[in-house]
Amino acid sequence: MDCKEVMANMSCYINGDGSQELRKALTEHVADCRRCGVIFDTTGQMLGIVRDAEPFLVPLAVSARLYSRLERVFSDT
Ligand SMILES: [Zn+2]
User: Fold this and answer.
1) Which domain holds residue 27?
2) Which residues contact 49 (CB under 8 A, 6 or more apart)?
3) How many domains does the chain have?
4) pLDDT tens-digit readout, 39-63
5) Residue 77: pLDDT band by 50, 70, 90 thresholds?
6) What is the CA radius of gyration of the chain?
7) Which spans in the chain are helix H?
8) How close is the Cα of 67 to the center of ligand 1, in Å?
9) C-alpha of residue 61 to centroid of ligand 1, in Å
């Protein structure tokens, strides 16, 4: 899995859906890839879901802003 795939599948990770294989691949990539790790941290903090309860309630409007932000992060590199 490369960084673009991670970004494309991040909603699965955030929302807690997707196959176990997919989540495992995402987790492993994020553990190894500093850039995606930072994005995941940032994303989690932005959404307030990292260590808090109610991790699966991500409003669509937040997702849309998140994705446009992620697009910028990736296009900067
Ligand atoms: Zn990556």
Assistant:
1) 3-75
2) 14, 55, 58
3) 1
4) 877 776 666 554 454 444 555 556 7
5) low
6) 12
7) 3-15, 20-32, 34-47, 60-75
8) 15
9) 24
